[in-house]
Amino acid sequence: MTALEFSYHLDKLSTSLRPFAMRLTKDSEAANDLLQETVLKAYTNRDKFTEGTNLKAWLYTIMKNTFITNYQRMVRRNTFIDSTDNLHYINSSGNITENMAYSSFAMRDIKEAIGKLDENYRLPFLMHFRGFKYYEIAEKLDIPIGTVKNRIHIARKDLKAMLKNYGGKL
User: Where do the RNA polymerase sigma-70 region domain residues begin and end (predicted)?
Assistant: First the structure.
């Protein structure tokens, strides 16, 4: 395949590569950059392409590998390496002081909410919370496993409603 033919095929396939680049990057500008870098790498390495094989698959592979390489490079660039003797300060973003008052209020509210659950829901929920498997709870309470799963689900939903003031911070 001549360079002109390769360029023609590359140009035709580049439009189908754009949606893949958008799925990878989730950003229009980054997708354009990735597409441009992919086409450039494909053109400069056209001698490595085996004629008769799937050019589109080859281009997708180049794009995916380029994206992964760029992502890894970005992660390495943003990783902080502390070479001092105080290794416990690695990636610390400042001093945080808590007096644990928030957690004691939260625990009190959680216990109170669990206490308000109907016994049919509270018992399976607490058993599951303590580490029992669904089938163990079913055997212990002599109820079907589907009922156990349903009661635990309802208990969670009810607790979430009762503890909505915490806004998902628990």
Answer: 17-73
| The amino acid at 143 | I
- Sorted by sequence, the CB contacts under 8 Å of residue 149 that are 6+ apart come out as 134
Average pLDDT over the chain, rounded to whole? 84
Domain containing 150 equals 115-166
Rounded-to-integer distance, Cα 92 and Cα 163, Å: 31
Residue 89: predicted pLDDT: 52
- What is the pTM (predicted TM-score) of this model? 0.46
- Return left, alpha or beta for 92; rule: phi > 0 is left, psi -120 to 50 is alpha, else beta: beta
Domain count, the chain: 2
DSSP string, 23-60: HHHSSHHHHHHHHHHHHHHHHHTGGGSPTTS-HHHHHH
